[in-house]
Amino acid sequence: xxxxAQTVERALxxxxxxxxxxxxxxxxxxxxxxxxxLPTAALRLTHADALARIxxxxxxYVLAFVGGTGVGKSSLLNALAGSTVxxxxxxxxxxxxxIAWVPADHRAALAPLLAWIGVxxxxxxxxxxxxxVAILDLPDMDSVASEHRARVEAILPRVDAVAWVTDPExxxxxxxxxxxxxxxxxxxxxxxLVVNKADRLSADDGRSIRHDLELDLVAATGGGGLVxxxxxxxxxxxETGDGATALADLRxxxxxxxxxxxxxxxxVAATVVDLGRHIAADAGLDPRLPLTPFLDDSARAAGxxxxxxxxxxxxxxxxxxxxxxxxxxxxxxxxxTGPIGHLTALLYKASGxxxxxxxxxxxxxxxxxxxxxxPAVEALRTSLATPLRAASPGVRPALARxxxxxxxxxxxxxxxxxxxxxxxxxxxxxxxxxSLIGFAQTMATVGLALSAAWVVLWFVARPEVSSADxxxxxxxxxxxxxxxxxxFAGYVLARVLRLHAxxxxxxWADSVRDxxxxxxxxxxxxxxxxxxxxxxxxxxxxxxxxxxLESGCASR
Length: 556
Known about the structure:
- The protein is of the alpha/beta class and 556 residues long.
- The protein folds into two domains: 61-258, 3-Layer(aba) Sandwich (Rossmann fold); 297-528, no CATH class.
- The protein has helices spanning 5-14, 18-35, 41-55, 73-81, 107-117, 146-155, 174-184, 203-220, 242-246, 248-255, 260-282, 297-315, 317-336, 338-350, 353-357, 360-365, 374-390, 396-401, 405-423, 432-461, 478-527, 530-554, and strands spanning 61-67, 99-103, 121-125, 133-137, 161-166, 191-195, 229-231, 467-470, 474-477.
- The protein has a seven-stranded mixed beta sheet with strand order 3-2-4-1-5-6-7, with helices on both faces. Strands 8-9 form a two-stranded antiparallel sheet.
- Helix 8 (203-220) links the parallel strand 6 (191-195) and strand 7.
- The longest helix has 50 residues, at 478-527.
- The radius of gyration is 44 Å and the shape is rod-shaped.
- The chain starts with a helix and ends with a helix.
């Protein structure tokens, strides 16, 4: 029976077997293809079957005779055996169940393998001239009984080699060429195309058919390894002479260079490489060429730039700058205007005006209340319109999902929130000069209060006071002069505070605007196309995995 798949995999990995890298690359390609929405069942089934096949003991390989109705597969097997192994008849279909012809000394070892393949009818022979090979006669691939073709398609992935059998009438048959050869030729390391009933052909006709088939096979394999074309004549078993001679080339092919383990490994590697090429083609990739992203750098930069600009309009950097300036002035008033400033600051907060007009933190957090991300979403969707049209049909649905407005809007919203969080708390700055101005304002306020009292006392009691000659006003009693001086000093200090706070506020507001702008741009640039980036990463992973299959499986 087969060795446990995990045991086989550990053994391959422990021996640093190139086939392990080959099979691991197949799974990596399947994982990447899953993200791209491509079907991967065939890849994973091939991986499982490969480990199972390698795990079977024995030194024999399995060869299947595959062909259409009436081409003489059963007769060919019987001629090789020299006796009736598989019933041949003019009635169609004849072979309904696969039949195995195996060497007697390998039968016990092959029994679990044949059961895994799905072959129950087994006939043995004592000869050793054909080497360690179990030959299967499969049902007709073009049978009127649909279950026969289904049986062939189920068995083919588990055999190690194939002899494609045709005849002079069916050698160009579409069922053979388009239904089987184009799909299976690249997946088999050992195979041959047998034109049976060649005794009915003239020498020239035989050469012409061989030449045509060789050209067809080269085209089907993309110019790959040459598949030999043999002309045979399987005479009925009771006849002798030309039949045996005509089978000599097939017998020679069966015995030449046979190394069962090498054939099995080569079959696995060839299948893996072919599946890798197909899944890459489904993704619109060619592992032999440099990887090109869905969205090139210039188009990506333009799309993200437009989206960032739209997001920043929603955030409203102008309004944020005004809030930052107002918050700075409010803090300056609280520290630099003396007792009156403290009172007005409390009233400013109590009225709620500070929250509305001088709270950059709150203003930034409430960005969703002011603008829509729809323009930003549309900018990203527009940038992806061209790549969507150019994408391969296999990945187009997954790429189209990255254009859905809801995920894009959610992604942009999270990007803005992360940017705001990264900026940190926007606490208005302060200055030691404001404390000095505040102390001076306190002194001016005290002086103003005392001078106002002096003025009131002067009005009431009319004490003798000196006067000062002022331009235009003439002689002004000293209480009024002192009051004017303190009023002017308060005004000057207030102007100085306003100018200084304005300069500090503008500088800080510009810094806040730039920080928020840079943070939003960075987040949108890094994560705004997150759904697309996930596909790009999977596509790059698939390209790397399938490219490695070519080299990783070549040294199998």
